[in-house]
Every structure is written in C-alpha cells, then in structure tokens.
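**Backbone shape codes:**
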Amino acid sequence: APLAEKGAQAAASPRALVEGSDAVIVMVYDDEAVEAVYGGEEGLLRAPLEGKTLILMSTTSPATARKIADQVEVRGGRHVECPVGGTVPPALNGQLLGLAGGEAEAVEAVRALLEDLCRRVEHTGPAGTGAAMKLAINLPLIAYWEALAEALSFAEAAGVDLGLAGDLLGDSSGAIKVAPPRIPTIVKAIAGDLPETGFFTLGAMAKDLRLMRKVAEESGFSIPLAGAALSVYEAAEREGWQRRDGTMIAAYKMKKH
C-alpha cells in the first residue's frame, strides 16, 4: 500500500489497529460502514479500549454517533466524534472545520491531533451534536447547488448567455463563498465538458439529505427545503450520476451533456 511504502504501519484489522494505537480515526462513507468498522467480528469494539480514544470523523446520523459513544464508553474507551467541513484540498492543507462532539475532557485530549487536520476545532457539546452540526452545515450548501441550477436555467431561458449568467451570479450576493471558483466548471459541464468524479459527490449529498430528513422526522419538525432538494438529487442518482461532483446537479437538470 502507498502509505506503508512511506513508512506507515498497516494493521490487519480495525481491532489490531486499536491494539497498536492510542487514538484511532474512523472516516468511512456512511452509518452502515461505521457500524461495520466498530462492530464487526474484528471491529474496533472487539479490542481492549481502556486508555484508547476512538475518533469518529464520518458524517453520520446523531443517533449513530450517540450509539457508538455508548458502546465505546461502556468498554472503558473515550469517544470523540469530529465530522469535518471541507473536501480533499482543505484536508491536504490542514484547513478543515472540526465539529467535535463528546465529553469535553475527551475532546481536549485529542485536540492537538485534530488541529493537525483542522484550521478550527469547536466542541459542539455531547455525543451526537457534532454529527447534527455537520448535517446542519451541509443542508444550505447542498440546497444552494440546486438553487444555482435553477438560477442558471432561469437566466438562460430568458435569453442571458449562460457564461455571463454564471459570471454575474458568482460576483453577486447570489453566491456563497465557495461558489465563484466552481461556477466556471459548472458552466462548462452544462455545455458538455462534464467531469466524471468529484470530491463531495452527488450520491454523498443525497445520502446526507436522507439523514437530515430522517432526523427531522424523528424529532417532529419539518425541513421542506431538504425534501425538495432530495427529490432532484435522487432523480440524478437513478440516472447514474451518483459518482459525479454534487455541483454538477446543474448539468443534470439542464441536460446539455
């Protein structure tokens, strides 16, 4: 493996990884994968956890984060959840936003480690709050790309050049701060130059929207914007777009590829 070739030690299983480490970071795709890494036959929970800290950095439901915390702590370990804001480029530069849930003492014990990855690490409260805050951050971000798709469609249908519309949207109050460098790529994709993969994929955005809807339903409140966005992302998933960057939802809606 590339990391092993550079001097990292590879473990045969999650259990073995815990046995040889003081702290273990878990960052996998979804709740199901988290459950497998922690609870599998050779999972993290099979190892002695006294004096160990398990750091859950996946985007999960708050309920899963709380369940994992209980399972770790009853075995004598320390749980910290720390989902992050940011994709691959910020991660490579240690510029993520860390949303740390769990006992304050546990968070402080691994703060230096988390700060190697994050420009800011904020303790959000007990287990489950970091997971909830990550979903809260993702909701307006994901909905924005769907709104941008509609704005570009609206402008072009009214006779505005698509490239000009994208440029003006990116230079206006109609853009979030991550939009301007991405809008030119979105416009090119609509015209047919469509990237095959992405960092925060369309499928991952749909997964997060489903988590948000589930949490809202369980908590007894409504998030209609998430539901409306999810219907579009799931339609794109059904047509095989799940591995494309989520910002390509505009290209999917305008279907000029």
Remarks:
- The chain has 13 helices and six strands.
- The two ends are 37 Å apart (CA to CA).
- The chain has two domains: 2-126, 134-254.
